[in-house]
Here is the input.
Amino acid sequence: MQLRAGRFPPHAIRSAASNAEKFGKFGEAIEMIGAFGLVCAGYRRVRWAAIASLIAALTGAGCATPVGDLGKDSPSAAKEAAVTERATARWQALIKKDYGAAYAFFSPSSRETTTLPKFQSRIEAIEYRAITIDKVECEAEVCAVKLTLTYDYPPARIKGVVTPLNESWIIDQGQAWFVFRG
Here is the structure.
């Protein structure tokens, strides 16, 4: 790619040529992104979006590759450890009232049937305080989680409710996902 001197500042042309020399084909991509960013002068978000897109394309992110390496044939201990970690993280997000982060653990089919606003409207009145994962059992690609939840329900002025819960998780696309039964 050739940058014309009349269209771009001289330092940009030197920088692009330097990138191409230093990094080969990757440098050419940097040069193209740099040219795009200069054409869109003042629109730094566009430039950074282009850089992020290039990085994602070069590293293979966003492909149809699995998110993790779990599968129905993975050892039960590995699946149980992954589900325990993700279930704990999901509940910690709910305790912090980070509904978007908690929603990110939903299985793809759960996200198709329940939107984030719908999910949030159903649970935001509850103040989750603590959870304890009691047991996780996995068979093939389905995992059952037994946990103990402590929460407050301010609308009714109820505090410190301790209740057992059962959750379903699935292994799909190399990752453990929460199955929301809304």
About this structure: The beta strands are 127-139, 142-153, 158-172, 175-179.
